[in-house]
Every structure is written in C-alpha cells, then in structure tokens.
Amino acid sequence: MKNIVVLVSGGGTNLQALIDAQNSNLIKNGRITCVISGNPNAYALERAKNNNIDTEVIRRNDFESFGEYDLALTNLIKSKNADLVVLAGFMTILGHKVISAYENRIINIHPALIPSFCGEGFYGLHVHEAALKKGVKLSGATVHFVNEECDGGPIIMQKAVEVKNGDTPEILQKRIMEQAEWIILPKAVSLFCEDKIQVIDNIAIIK
Ligand code: GRF
Hints:
Elements (H helix, E strand, L loop, with lengths): L1 E7 L4 H11 L6 E8 L5 H8 L3 E4 L8 H14 L4 E4 L8 H6 L4 E5 L14 H10 L3 E8 L9 E8 L6 H25 L3 E4 L2 E4 L1
The protein binds 5-O-phosphono-beta-D-ribofuranosylamine.
C-alpha cells in the first residue's frame, strides 16, 4: 500500500475527488495518509478532518528564506513516509530540495491542456481567462509529474473539455473541474500506486 500525501491551499475539491475515489475503492494500492496545507484557513483541511485524515499546515511566510521553507517542507513530507505527493491546488512553488527528493513521485493537476496556458502566472482563473481570450474551442486538464520547469514535467493524463459560447472564466473553470480534473486526478493517482506509470526520457508511459 502506497502512502499518498496531498498538498492543498484552498477549497480542496480535487482532494474531495481523491477522498471519494478512495472511499469507493477506486484508488488501488494507495491511501491518503496526510493532507498538508499552505494555508491554515483552507477548507480542504475540513474535508480531510471529516474523513479522519491527518493534517499539517506549513506556511511560506513563517520562514525567513525560501531555502529554509523548502527544507522544512521536504522534511515534513519525509516524516509522513510519502510514496507519492499530490499537488491539488497547492499555491506555493516547490523548491529544488523537495522536487529532487521526490523525482517522478510528485503529481500536479493543471486546468488546461499543457503546453497551452501553462507556466509562470498561469494559475486559477488566469488560465481560463487566457483560454477564452484566445478563443480556443477545447480546453481541459492535465495531470503531470513535477520537475524544475513550471508545468513542464512528464504528462501522465489529459482530458479535453468543450469551450462554449458565452463562457466566463468561472463557468469554464467549473466545467473543467467537473468533466476533467475530478476524473483524471484519481485515475492517475491509482495508476501510480499500481506501478503502472513508467517515465522514459521525460515521457510518461502508462503500462
Ligand atoms: C484546480 O483548478 C487545479 O487545477 C489547480 O488549482 C485548483 C484547485 O482547486 N491546480 P481545489 O482546491 O481542488 O478546489
């Protein structure tokens, strides 16, 4: 059984999708053992507590330097014996220490079809604003491993979602969550826990 540690900062609907999948036995060979929040007021923490999942809070602002924060986060994750780290709306950029300690063992969900609308500055509603501004007819979500390049790690799974006339960023965000994020994130997590994802030359292959 693999230990899954989920990092959150906000509402935690993706965390909820993982919890629901776990409760329906859809996450094979893995269980969420801890939820770590970058924000003490994140509703995601309530979701974890409601399901008797251990919680921790670590705030970037409580550390003088980014290096100290990076080390503390790495040690916290290690202390939880994590086999897999899932970023489910975690709003603080990860540092070198944590990324190198968990190479191809950190998964992120991004609300667009990478390589579109990704990289620095593309988070939250900004992603959907950019997609609408460009007039794309399809957007979606991507689950990928995290490396040192922002949103640049090996792509594990993607799902396209239609963009409709009259969409606002909020409407598109909700459709992408419902039709893509909440579906592919639990699937990718299960595949990882079942050892079905292999990375060769920066390309993720699902066995
Ligand atoms: C999601 O849109 C996810 O794609 C992005 O952050 C958001 C988190 O939302 N990385 P929630 O906290 O899971 O509701």
